[in-house]
Amino acid sequence: MKHLLLAAAVASLAFPVTAQEPAPIPSPGEIAAAAPASDWTAIAPSDLLVMDLAPDARGKARRVVIQLMPAPFSQGWIGNIRKLSAAHWWDGTSINRVQDNYVVQWGDATEKKAMPEGLVMVPENAYLSQRQRGRTTWLPFTNGAYAPHHGVVAGWPVAWNVDAAWPVHCYGMVGVGRNLSPDTGTGAELYTVIGHAPRHLDRNIALVGRVISGIEHLSSLPRGTGALGFYETEAERVPIASVRIATELPEANQPRFEYLSTESDSFARYADARANRRDPFFIKPAGGADICNIPVPVRAVGEGSK
Amino acid sequence: MKHLLLAAAVASLAFPVTAQEPAPIPSPGEIAAAAPASDWTAIAPSDLLVMDLAPDARGKARRVVIQLMPAPFSQGWIGNIRKLSAAHWWDGTSINRVQDNYVVQWGDATEKKAMPEGLVMVPENAYLSQRQRGRTTWLPFTNGAYAPHHGVVAGWPVAWNVDAAWPVHCYGMVGVGRNLSPDTGTGAELYTVIGHAPRHLDRNIALVGRVISGIEHLSSLPRGTGALGFYETEAERVPIASVRIATELPEANQPRFEYLSTESDSFARYADARANRRDPFFIKPAGGADICNIPVPVRAVGEGSK
C-alpha cells in the first residue's frame, strides 16, 4: 500500500533487508523506540490532568490526558487548574469551539458558573526563569522566524531571544483562553492547538501544558460554524464528564506516562534525525526542522493509560 | 465569550470604538477583506478539482475543492490528474487513511483498479522554473529551518536555496502518495496535510495542489487506528462519490474561487500583519512568521461554491 512515512511514531515498513544490503538508517520513531529505559523520564501523576469526555455516539470512552507544565514555566496559575479540578468545576462543562487548523476550546459555555475561591489572574505569558533558561538544550538547526533560538528543556519546546525564553505554541499545546485584556484569563477556559503552530500567540497567551494522549478526540470533532469556530447550538457542544488530576482517580484508572528525556543522547539523535531524514523513504534530508516538527516522544506505561 | 483571535479569516470583534479612541489596527483577515476587487485573481475552473464525498451520517453533502498547481510548478503529471478525473477513476474509491497531525490520503484501497492509459510517473518533487523563480516575492521575515528563503509566487508558497525553488508542504497542500521508490507515484493516490507543516516532505514528494474549500470534511474524520493511520476496515473508509475538473460539472454546480494576488499591495500588507500582529488582542508582535502561517487568502465567488 502506498504510504507516506509516519511522522513521529514507529513505522514498520516491511522493508526487505538481504545479507548484501546494509541495514536501513533508523527513522526518528525507531530511534526513540530503541532508547534505553534510563533515557525515559516518568511524568509525575500530579502533573497529569485527565479529561474524560462524554462517550461518543457509539458509546466509546474518550479520554484526553494533559501534561501540566511544572514550575517554573507556569507559576501560580497552575494552582488555578488544580483548584478548578479539585472543585470538579469542569464536570458538566463542554467543548465549545473547534476551529479548523487552529484550536479546540473548552469551558463553561454559559460563562456564569461560579468560580472556586482563590484563583489568580493569568498574565499573557509564562517566561522561563534564568536558571531554567541556562539548562536549555539549543537545537541550532531549528532557527526560525519567531525567535533566534529554539530548543528543549525538561521535556518542553522553548524559544528564546536576548531578553527572555518562553514555551512555544506547537500542535497539542494547551493554553489559557482570554479576552482582549491580557489579564482576563483564569485557566477555566482552556484551548489546545489542532493545526499548524500558531506561533504568533507565543508571549500573547499563557501556555499551561500539552495534550499527551487522546488529542484525536478533540482534533476530529466537527468544526464549529459560528464566528471563530464556536458551536452555535447546545446540541453541538461535547459534554465534559469529568476533569481530574490523575492522583485524584482510583489507582487502577490512573494513566502513567514517560517522556524521552530531552537531555539524553537518544533525544539528540532523535532530533538530528527529524532534521535530517535518512531513513529509506527520503531522498533529500532537509538539514533543519521547525521546533514543532521535533515533538518530544511521550509513551504510555501501564494499563490505566489505555 | 472568551476567544482567541481568528487565524486568517475575518473576525468581528465587537470592539467598542468611541470618538476618542483611534480605530483599532486591522487584523490580517480584515486587510484581505478590504482589498479592492482588482487585487483578487480568479482561479481558472480548469484548475479546480472537485471531490464530492458520500453524504455524511446526517445526509449532508461534503464537497472538497482542490486548486491544482498550474505549470510550471507541476509539469506533465498534472495531466495524470486530468486523465484520472476524465476517466471518473476516483468515483467509488475512498478516503483510506487519516493520521492525526499529518495527512488524509485517498485512492483505491484495493490497489487493483486499472489505470487509464498514458499516465506518466511522478518524480519525487516539482521544482520551479528559473523564470517562475525570478518572479517570486521574497518574504524576508519568514526565514526558517527548511530553506534560506521563503516567499510566494502566483498565489503559491515557495522556498528556495542557492540551487532551486520548490512549493512547500503547508496545511492543506495536496501531494502524490508514493512508495519507497521515488518514481512509484501516479497521482491516483493523493494526500493532504492536516497538521503542522511536514516540511521534511518538501523535495521528497511532489505537490500538485491545495485544498481551498471543504478541508474540514477531511480533517475532522475519525483517525485511522492502523499503522500510519490507515483505516483497518472497509466500513471505516469514506466513499468518494465523484471527482471532476470543475469544467466537467453542470455550470450551476461549478465552484468559482479567487485568491488574493500575491503580487498585490494588499497581500504585502496582509503578510506583514501576519508577521506583526498589532490588532487589539495582541501584546507582543512576533516580528516574523512561518511561510505556512501566511496562508494565501482564497474566497468563494457565486452560488456553486457553497
Got a strand count of chain A?
A: 15
User: Helicity of chain A, in percent?
Assistant: 10-25%
Provide the low-confidence segments of chain A as ranges. Answer: 1-18
- CATH architecture descriptor name of chain A: Beta Barrel
Assembly of the depicted chains: homodimer
Characterization of the model:
The structure is a homodimer of 306-residue chains. With 306 residues, chain A is an alpha+beta fold. Chain A has one domain (44-108, 117-305): Cyclophilin-like (Cyclophilin, Beta Barrel). Helices cover 11% and strands 24% of the residues of chain A. Chain A contains five helices and 15 strands. Chain A has helices spanning 28-33, 78-86, 130-134, 216-219, 265-275, and strands at residues 40-42, 48-53, 62-68, 94-99, 103-107, 137-138, 149-153, 156-160, 165-167, 173-176, 190-193, 207-213, 238-245, 257-260, 298-300. In chain A, the strands form three sheets. Chain A has an eight-stranded antiparallel β-barrel. In chain A, a hairpin with a 3-residue loop joins strand 4 (94-99) and strand 5 (103-107). Chain A is globular. In chain A, 52% of the residues are buried. At the A-B interface, strand 4 and strand 5 of A face strand 5 of B.
List keywords for this structure.
306 residues; alpha+beta; Cyclophilin; globular
